[in-house]
Amino acid sequence: MKVNLLTENEILYFMHIPKTAGTTVNDLMRRNIPIERTTVRNELYYFHLFNKVDKEEVEKFNYIAGHFNFSSVNDINKKLISFTVLRDPIERTISQFSELRKTFGKREPSNLVNSTQEYIYQKIIVENIEFDTFVKDSFFQKQFIVNFQTMFIGSDQKQIFLVNEPIERQMDRINLDKAISNLSKFEFIGFQDKMEETMLKVAYMCGFYPEKKVRRLNANTLTEKIRKSLSDETMNMLKDMLKLDYELIEIARGIFSEQLSEIKREDVIENFNKALYIRTKLNPKHVNFSEGWSIIETDSSNAHSIWSGPDNKSMFHLYIEDIRDVEIKISIKSVLLKENLKRIKVSVNGNQLRTQLIKENGKRILTAKVKKEFLNSETKVNEWIIEVPKTVSPKELGISNDTRKLGIMISEIEYE
After folding, report:
1. Which of 96, 119, 127, 184 has its CA 20 to 30 A from that of 205?
2. Are 270 and 351 within one domain?
3. CA of 28: how far to CAs of 25, 38, 200, 217, in Å?
4. Type and span of the H or E element at 336
């Protein structure tokens, strides 16, 4: 497997097949690639807008991801480093149904823009159909069920995922053959039920820090409940409608196993050290939020910040080439428990630091003096740990319905 550190002439492309753990993948990307260099949380994530944008604008990104296939990116001039994540077809279908319930359950009838959305809303929300009925409905079969992953990878159509109007599709073995052929275009392929291994592969490929625990985002508890209550009739219908998907996935799992055998954690860390050096050269203020953080958030002024959590320890890395005594400055934008402010601990490479909380230019800043003996003079990559006494969710405090366990929100980390 080729090791990629995302040079100026390369773009990482994630073909996000809906309901295959794409939110989890994008969370990792948002903490490792500057958010303005990605299409995550961007209107370009959706093919009907992506396909209208001049490709020279697209080529400014380091990471493009979305619900579109190879037909939408074939004319990009830079080299694409492509990957995707697949999922057990029946599990994906159940999750799709659960997602439609969640998404359209938040819609107001007045916000439905066309007859397609009205039909989905009527069936899923108003009639509150069960999964068995969803599977038997010809509209839902065509748009969301029949060999969906084979269609997504193998189709030559740019419009492959329902947005506004119904899509006419023809599924046959020719489409399967095209999908199998397209598997060779991926630098790697992951699986939703093997996310730890998949994310290790992503880290290895991109020079990211290999997190020990994968946070699964956008999971739906309804999915497992439906799975356990499936009737034999519905199960047999699904197996018949998803035959090509299962053939495709059997081949893809073989590729996955071969790729995985190449990777060792120590190799991933070595890649990460090299990548951090390159990223720091490009941006001297680069901070790698490696483990124990929520997603990067952007406020109305386009300023970025990130919460620590859900555990009380959070890790970040800095590449410091000039080994000398330095002072680390951590700007704290917000905190849920005020008592945490006075009891924050900071360490570097296992060495505990004496911290001080000060006000500077209206900002709360946690500072600490760092002796050069504490810094890594060999790799120049330094591992920092921020520890708060306790994390808590806004919901627990009655602030909002946010259930994330959070510690402190950081807006900037620098040293001098």
Report:
1. 96
2. no
3. 5, 12, 11, 11
4. none
